[in-house]
Fold:
Amino acid sequence: MKDRIQVVEKILSANDRIAEDNQARLDAAGVLALNFMASPGAGKTSLIERTLEALAPERRIAVVDGDVASSIDADRAAAAGATAVQINTGGECHLDAVMLQSALDQLPLDKMDLLIVENVGNLICPASFALGTHASVLIASVPEGDDKPYKYPGMYRGVDALVINKIDLLPYIDFDMDRFRAGVEMLNPGLVTFALSCKTGEGLEAWLDWLNSRIEGCPSKG
Amino acid sequence: MKDRIQVVEKILSANDRIAEDNQARLDAAGVLALNFMASPGAGKTSLIERTLEALAPERRIAVVDGDVASSIDADRAAAAGATAVQINTGGECHLDAVMLQSALDQLPLDKMDLLIVENVGNLICPASFALGTHASVLIASVPEGDDKPYKYPGMYRGVDALVINKIDLLPYIDFDMDRFRAGVEMLNPGLVTFALSCKTGEGLEAWLDWLNSRIEGCPSKG
Structure:
């Protein structure tokens, strides 16, 4: 058992070293990088489309999409105006720093302001692997249910911002917002949270304001 | 690289051996066992509740719930009348045959007709680990989107039945049932499929008929 633990630690620290390299490259280019994590179907790609509609081309945005298979998400991001790179993990349940490193090699970092990394749809594994992004954003959604913070604490504990998507469905679903928020507050006190609907556009303004302020806070290009 | 592959094969075959032992124990007791897999929030627990309401106590049903944390699902299954065992995986993204083996030790197998194993909410990892159940059931849901078969082919390819839950939300969501079904058909031709709503009860009858016929097809107790 002790041996096994040591191996896991070694893998993690190799990943962490490459994540640090990734972040240094992003910092040198003045690019803010966000790691979008969520369940399958919570709306990561829809939020990316809405963000591109509102902020591009003034903000120069690239998207790296991680999926087990297909290029559906990168196609959607490219159609919405982003420079997009698809990573097919070939079965792996999360992105890691090496995968992002390969994607960065394909991107014009010095002509970008924002990089959105769309992780594999999964509420567990992606939380354990640093990529080198500056902040992690969890996209939850109303149809998933109000019990998710209690059932996936690792994910909720480790993120820097939370989006609650699909609030347009609140009239049709038994979702207790107070129970949901109490679970979040227990795990991640004071977490910046945006309740919105990518379908109707309700609540998007606050998300975009936060994102703009994060981009402006980035070190300027050298 | 070759060494690494060999290790993975060894782990899988150890899991498979224990899965076979689990199935032999279930067969000896005449218990049909199903492995419920789904995204977080697709409605595994709701389908279990509805199934218990309709079939218990005539059918003697037990539930094993796998979650990263909490006992929310086992509490719900127990409240609905099942004998329930909660497995907290402590971070693991799937159940495996050893975990189910421990749960079987706690269950009165010779006083059961049906065992439902509710796997961890995850569309990737659970597909790779046999448990010893007789059939795998994937619970998809309308709000997840019609692109999920294309993005999570491993899961859709490996299951024996498919439930499409939350059809009551079809009027409020852009979900193309033809696109969804075409993706499923490509991966798993002729897959037995039930479109239903655990909220309204629509479509449940066909699911319950299928389940009853599977239970009746089980080898009788010795």
